[in-house]
Amino acid sequence: MSEVRSLGYVIISSGDLDAWETFACDLLGLQVAEKTPDRLRLRNDEKIYRLEVVRGEAEGVTVLGWEVQGKEALEDLVTRLETNGYEVTRDSTEAARERGVTEMVSFTDPEGMRVELFYGQMVDKNKFISPTGANFLTGDGGLGHVFHLVHQEEPIRHLYLDILGFKLSDYIDFGPIYGTFTHCNPRHHSYAFAPVPGVPSGIGHIMFEVDDIDIVGRAYDKVLKENAAPLAMSLGRHSNDQMLSFYVNSPSGFQIEYGTGAITIDDETWVPKRYDVPGFWGHERQMPV
Q1: pLDDT (tens digit, 9 = 90+) per residue, 232-278?
Q2: Nearest-CA neighbor of 42 among 182, 184, 148, 144?
Q3: DSSP β-bridge partners for residue 264
Q4: Based on C-alpha coordinates, what's the Rg of the chain?
Q5: CA distances from 99 to 9, 31, 218 (A)
Q6: Which residues pair with 259 in a beta bridge?
Q7: How much of the chain exceeds pLDDT 70, in percent?
Q8: Would you say residue 201 lies in a domain?
Q9: Whole-angstrom Cα distance, residue 47 to residue 52?
Q10: Are residues 81 and 201 in the same domain?
């Protein structure tokens, strides 16, 4: 069965591209790939971009771009989506070129999020140079992971696990609700979701992983000592992926997790677990979700 391979890119709507540039470059260490009055593209590896911030009235993530192996895998996934009642758009060659991919299709998930499936993401001829010296862990693991706050848990579970081919990593209890963590490559999770009553549906956070605890520590110092961004959760270590990280609020309101040291998954030996706490220590909430 064809499967999604990794998180390729995320598109964000925001009214303040300058704030995003400062936040992403000075704090996180992303590099500006392109900036116009209406669009900011940011890199964290050899790809031409991983985040795109588009000027708009709404604030938040509007598109998730998932990479597949190639044309055959894309066609297989289109067939499965359509068989399960999804209306799939075969986007034009011009639209794919604008995204920086070879071919793509799109559909809307049960929560109203636009999802794009693609193959052949463009590689930049210029070397990625982080303004903070950060080296991001991407490669087969994609740009990082996203955590989706949802209202319809079962349709999302069916879409990602049964149709798109994600595999269960584990569960975490968050009081009366629980989160489901899934993977599509060795990264512990690329997509996680949880039903959160009374909270608007949408991406709650995007995670970036670097390979150096000192890069995380220096970024944390900027948050604490220079007010580089509003701290959302303090430094801590997660129970399931064991990542050492902290959370800040982005200029668009959703959170960014910034960390290092997560474990990876070997599907031949991995057994899903359930945890009664999200973290072994730290991750004290500083402000409401």
Answers
A1: 999 999 999 999 999 999 999 999 999 999 999 999 999 999 999 99
A2: 144
A3: 187
A4: 18
A5: 9, 18, 33
A6: 209, 245
A7: 99
A8: yes
A9: 12
A10: no
